[in-house]
Amino acid sequence: MGIRRRDGLFLSLFAIAFVASALARINLMPGAPLWLDECWTGAIAGQPTWRKTIDQIWLDANAPLYPLFMHAWIGLFGESNASLRLPSLLFGLAAPVLVAGWRIPGLLTRDRLALATLIAVGQQSLLQSNEARGYTLLAFLAAGQTFAFIGLLRRPNMSRAVHWALWTSLVGLTHYQALMLGAVQGMIYLARGREAALRTWPAALVFLPLGLELLWHAPRLAQFARPDVAWYGPVRLETGLDVVQFVAGHWLNLAIPACGLMLVIATKVGFSKRLAAPRVSEAVLWAGCSALIATVILMVIGAVRPSFAVRYVTPFIPGISLLLVAGARTFSSVVSGAVVALMLIAAAVSGFWTVMVTGHLRHPFTFEAASGDLMALHPSRLVFIWDHPAQKVEAVRQYDALGGFLFRRAGSTVAVTSVMARSGEDPNLLLLAAAREPQAVILWLYDRGVHDTAAIRHPPRLETLDPSFGCRNYGRGGIGVLACARAWRLASDK
Prior knowledge:
Layout: H1 8-27, H2 36-45, H3 50-59, H4 65-77, H5 81-101, H6 109-121, H7 123-128, H8 135-154, H9 158-174, H10 179-192, H11 194-199, H12 208-224, H13 237-248, H14 255-268, H15 282-304, H16 317-331, H17 338-357, H18 368-375, E1 381-387, H19 396-409, E2 415-418, H20 427-434, E3 440-447, H21 454-457, H22 462-465, E4 470-473, E5 479-485, H23 486-493
Parallel strand pairs: 1-2, 1-3
Antiparallel strand pairs: 3-5, 4-5
Helix pairs in contact: 1-6, 1-17, 2-4, 2-19, 5-6, 5-8, 6-16, 6-17, 8-9, 8-10, 8-15, 10-15, 14-16, 15-16
């Protein structure tokens, strides 16, 4: 790793932070049930064959790498909650190790260890390590892309260009929005040296598999891009504040980098000529700025056309965190321990947050308990609806896989009938019409905080329309997880 003796303090701090973050990831959400998006992971990746998984991937709006990986993983290790989440934990731990161990000219070892510490203790990384979703894989790959880009800018050659293109392709195959990072970095590479870019153009052939995958998926993605299907809210001022907190974890983590920025400004305008700020590699700054620029572009697009969620900033966190470390390094001309202080503040803030939330985090949009209670009735049919704007373009077999995932995993042979409520239709009537069998049960998922949710216009009234049903709502607030069964009405009558 190239760790010198004088960097021992930084290595020790990183090691302590890494071990603490590993323990925090393991204990943060003990026994938490799978929530909606995690069940989507199981439904897509848990198909019995590769062909059926690929069919589900094409139907979905997400990139294919993570569900393909998870299909192979499930084949080896099963699909229990712990098994589904374990890859996220492993990738969450791998990202800071990758950063700490990747020796690269232009980035001091101590700064690399500081960056690895920020990534290790980041609250979002801790949370994402407890979810069966692809965001820790995305962060791991984006860290590799960021470091490969630094190497490419410092010494452009074919090998480094291929290296960067490979990491960038893997990032794009994990999350389509993350392609913006590669696009911005590509433009920076072209702008800084057209001769080098022309000399290394064959490296662009590495993007061929990504391009073919995008062509294959494009017709389906175009359907999800329709304005009437998008379920996102427009980007507003408060969204920007949420993004800052998502990236930094807490405003305290911005204090020292902000002081470094003010020092640079003061030096540039001549207020403080005697303070010579330590020089930060231009390649490092460009790598950090590429992530910041990509974030801003996605947010601007999201303000014009709703398409942005704060979690989409995940692949930009390594680059933006690099800017935080650069800011602290700059301020070290005034306070020699500025970078160490940044590491300590980030670790302390994360530790305090972890202690406060451990054991208290539960996502309201989970239907694991509802499915378990319905399974106990041994139903002949599950009538399922995910009440969501995407119903306009989603397929029945997607909802069959989602609604029946927990039943199938438990060994139930229940038949699944998915209801698709089109514009203006009342889900109450559709669900009851499909649940005429005596042993049929109903599961209705909705979120009234999402526009065009049918439950907003047609509130649940299944028990009123058919008094033979008894219903229980396992959700809270505007989120509904409504489970209904005739057996529950009979039990209450007794």
